[in-house]
# Entry
Amino acid sequence: MAQFIINNKIRELRFFANEMTQSELAKQVGVTRQTIMAIEKGKYSPSLEVAFKIAQAFDKPLHEVFSYDLQG
Amino acid sequence: MNLSYREKSLWVSLLVSLIITSYFGNKIVALFSEGATADPGAVSALLLKIIIASVIVEVVLHTLLAMSEQDGANEPEDEREKLFRLQANEWGYWFLAVGVITCIVHELINKQLTASADSLSHSAYQQVGFAPLELKLVAIFWISEIIRFTAQLYFYRKGE
# Structure
């Protein structure tokens, strides 16, 4: 059975957003810096609400921040 | 090591539980190793010392932690932390439920056996200091708390 994983471009988008720090993003979104770190590393899948807030922080649509890809 | 405020708080709680209870735990075991005539007052006093010591040390350490990290202390729990807490609670409370039920069943069976035994062993059972069932329940509660803290810390570490 095909395995899908959630990927994201948060690190890249932070860099292009005036090198936004994880703390700054975390404050905007309303989570801890460690949660943002875990999301970037793919260790934690955020809720829909948090995902939308992250996308909003970068002023990007959701699919430009997160993607649902076939693993491997 | 990248620790959030809540993770540091958990480490404090876990270490306080382990250190203080280990320190006093030896004394409790020693009371019962003398036989089934442990003084109930002595055991009660020891348990009270454990509780008071734990509360005081936890309050002091958590206050110092909150003072050193005021931002973290004021932040509400986020969704990931809440998820970890709920999952860890499930582990801890499962152990608590199974432990308590096992203890009660064991106690009921014991009472049935001693009631039907000769009067001497029955009175010896009655003389056991701070009734072992209560002490076992306290120990089970303590272990379930350790499981809860450890499980949360495991999720925090695994989640990074």
In short: DSSP finds six helices and no strands in chain B.
